Request: fold
Amino acid sequence: MSYLDQIKTLPLPTAENGGTNQQPFVTLPTLRDAQSLRGTDIRLRLLPDFATNPASLAPFTHHFHGVVSAATGKFTAITCPPACPVCQHGREEWYRTNKRPAWSHQMEHLVNAYVLDNPIDPAQNHTVKVLKFRQQIKAILDEALTGRDATEIGRRLFFLDDGGRTFVIHAERKGDWPVYDRSFIDTATRSKLDVADLSRADMEAIYAQSRPLADIFPPATPEEAETWYNTHVLGQGLPADPPDAPMPF
Reply:
């Protein structure tokens, strides 16, 4: 069975199952880019994760903690293990102070994507990358995959043929930041033009490049997570300050 035929048999995700190495990600505008951003469209076709989640089209969710380290002064992050002790410390801190700690649990989502056009990084055009995204883009994809548009669009987001639909990340500036809440699913007519030059063999070769998303950020062990918390959040185990030098007189 071809990859395209396989996608047509996969169930759409539901509300119940939706679910730092050098892997290349789709380049999105940075804070620096936002200073001159006037509206930029990045055009993608999404690809299933055949390795990690062969029975679903749901994006992969990455659970992690991040903080500016008390040990190094640089940002550091760790992927949650099952029964994550850092999550437990975060809940305890929240209950104690009624404030969400800076290092508390966070989520981001991953999906494979074939880049049709990326004006931020044209070298990515016609390559397979991983789209890493948060709530603004997730809300739009959720509507297409599990909401009122699921019947019309749904799995068509994952078709590379002329029956598929192109996902357009519309990036614009809001204050000093790039925002993506006006991203959209393009029309069937314009989407068809995006893949007019792709043969069936091209499509199968693109699908074959889909990455196992669970391997990009492998989870830590509970012991590693506890050590991370003690070192980077609490600053334990730091070398003691050197004694003051004696006065020269």
Q: What stands out?
A: Helices lie at 3-7, 31-34, 85-97, 135-146, 188-194, 200-207, 222-233.
